[in-house]
Specification:
This protein is α+β, with helices and mostly antiparallel strands. The chain is built from four helices and two strands. A two-stranded antiparallel sheet has the order 1-2.
């Protein structure tokens, strides 16, 4: 069984950015910030992009989108324990 962290990492490695709502819809995660923090500690270079949108009440809001910046070579090194 995949952990929420693994599901989030796979999504990021696919090249797609992710936000809190997407993480909840994808794997039920309500702690995306904590997962991103842990992935950064491991060595993944995850960029935060502040984005503006409209919430469910029609009000303007700002939220974080996360994007993986590592190259495929860097990812392989991290996964082999050579970060």
């Amino acid at each position: 069984m995949k952990t929420q962290q693994n599901v989030i990492l796979e999504e990021l490695k696919s090249g797609r950015p992710i936000n809190q709502k997407m993480a909840y819809d994808l794997c039920g995660s309500q702690r995306l910030g904590a997962i991103i923090f842990n992935l950064r500690k491991i060595g993944y270079d995850i960029m935060t992009i502040n984005t503006t949108g409209v919430n469910r009440f029609g009000r303007k809001t700002t939220f974080a989108m996360y994007h993986l910046s590592n190259t495929q070579e860097q990812i392989k090194r991290i996964e082999n324990g050579q970060s």
